[in-house]
Amino acid sequence: MESQLPVSAKSKPGESKLHHVQRLLDVLAQDLVNQNLTTPQRIATLEQLKIYGRDPSGSDPIFTKEGMETLCSNGFNSVDTATSQEALRCLANALLLEQETRQIFVDLGFAEKAADKLKSDSHDDEFLLARILFLTTYSTAIDLEKLLEEHNLGEWLNQAISRHAKQYSRITEDCPPSPMGEMALSETLKLIFNITHFVPSKSFHFSASIPNIFKILCRRQLPSPPLQAPVIYLINALLSLDIASCVGDIFPFRDSNLNVARLIEILDLATEVQEGKEEEFDDSGVPLLTLLRKMREAAPEHVREYMKRRLLPSEEERDKPLGKSTSLASRLLNFTASAMAPNTREHISSLLFELSDSSPEKYVHNVGYGFASGLLMTRGLQVSPSALAASGTQKLVNPITGQTLDSEELVKDPLGDMTEEEKEREAEKLFVLFERHGPLSGSIRRLLRIVWTNARMRGYRLKKTGVVDIKNPVQQALEEGRFEDLD
Q1: Which of 10, 116, 209, 384 is the most buried (most CB within 10 A)?
Q2: What family name appears in the similarity comment (predicted)?
Q3: Which uninterrupted H or E stretch holds 291?
Q4: With the C-alpha atoms ordered 160, 161, 163, 164, is the resulting torsion angle positive or negative?
């Protein structure tokens, strides 16, 4: 590369990096006026600047208004593709390393030219231009609405996503996507996400990309772990888009579960990889869970039923306390009790609650009161006493653990080692306790109802063994009207 530099741009013995950077920019600026460099010389000069610009130390002239203008002119006004792309690489480095250069770029009016140039079908151009515009969405006064309305930025980005979707329809294990294509796709998706995040009222510009994003998501081979580029960017891009506006495309008649099934597959793989490392899943997993909640909200009823079957515990799992199997549903339940993943805990609890038709009673039945209590307490939701009784359409279910009563190990009779006189004395103590304290508050009464429910279940199991036949003293006290609510 040094041999291709023009004489005026070659480094001098003992010359500092700072002075050489300035001379390189002067050579390029002069060339914009006189066109005195050959194309190879111009490219070599820009390549040297790119190498210097990777380290901001001693590269100050690049980050000035004059330096940025010189690079922008080469990047957006040059008719030579190689020259233009080399200048854009220098710009992308500058915008990444020095925040002040982003506003300079916008003030010079090159954001509009970047939007116009995005109609190119080159992956290299797409990657560089999308990254440059993505960086200018931070810490600048860029007018994104103007780029969308007057410079067709939404249309060019939609066309880019469409091109990627068509390419993925031809991709096989023997013919994977090109690395540059993957990088260009990631930058385009990141730009779409930022635009819809900062200007949510204009998200409709990208509705046309929703089916194509899902198409790429379904056809792309999943990496391991799955929540990495570009899969995570595909998911993020969908978050701010109006899913409900494309119901027919998202839930196609021929296979309405297709896209939901893919998202659940990603969730299954991601939680399996992160098992025991919940804190690592806490950031990457939230967008996926949020998207699943949006999908449930927009989905027709038969798709919602499919989501329930895949994400809620099955009847077969109730042979053990819920959360003890290796299924996806069990992993999700365990996340709801994880202290290491507070964001994931909240979103999974909300998803499972919504899959339970937002009914506290159904939620308790589906996941067990032990897993449901956190969300119910946080939202101040009350559960009727009947929901805390052993219930089930086919078998009686422990409402606390979700396990069927028939599958629970029989508990040793706690009264088995006591004489009849000792049993009577213990019962008398309970009655005296109730008489002494008189009327109880509503909260204590509800607590005693839970105790009563648990005791009733234990009595149910003990009666089945034939060991003992007793009537719960709490039940008897309630039936006799010895509890009343206080304001």
Answers
A1: 209
A2: Belongs to the synembryn family.
A3: helix 278-298
A4: positive
* Structure token digits, residue 444: 């204590």
- Cα–Cα distance between 177 and 168 in angstroms, integer? 7
Q: Where are the alpha helices (DSSP H) in 324-383?
A: 328-335, 342-355, 360-367, 369-379
Give the N- to C-terminal CA distance of the chain in Å, as an integer. Answer: 86
pLDDT tens, 122-143?
Answer: 999 999 999 999 999 999 999 9
Query: How far lies 163's CA from each of 170, 186, 229, in Å?
Result: 11, 14, 18
CA atoms of 435 and 433, how far apart (whole Å): 6
- Contact (CB, 8 A) for 388 and 447: no
Angle (CA) 314 318 321, round 5° = 125
Task: Please give the Cα distance from 70 to 21 (Å, whole number).
Answer: 13
CA 277/CA 265 separation, integer angstroms: 19
Alpha carbons 113 and 79: distance in angstroms, whole number: 14
Q: Directed axis angle between helix 179-198 and helix 231-239, to 10°?
A: 20
List pLDDT tens digits, range 324-338: 888 999 999 988 888
- CA nearest neighbour of 221 among 284, 266, 288: 266
Tokens of 407: 């599958």
Q: What's the sign of the alpha-carbon dihedral 278, 280, 283, 289?
A: negative
Kindly report the length of the chain. 487
Maximal C-alpha separation, the chain: 113
At 65, the amino acid letter reads: K
DSSP three-state, residue 175: strand
**106 contact partners, CB below 8 Å, separation of at least 6:** 136, 140, 141, 142
pTM for this predicted structure: 0.79
Q: What is the pLDDT of residues 133-182, one digit of tens each?
A: 999 999 999 999 999 999 999 999 999 999 999 988 776 666 678 899 99
pLDDT at 440: 47
Task: Report CA-CA distances (Å) from 149 to 20, 146, 191.
Answer: 42, 5, 16
pLDDT at 412: 52
Looking up tokens 């939404």 gives 154
3-class secondary structure, 258: helix
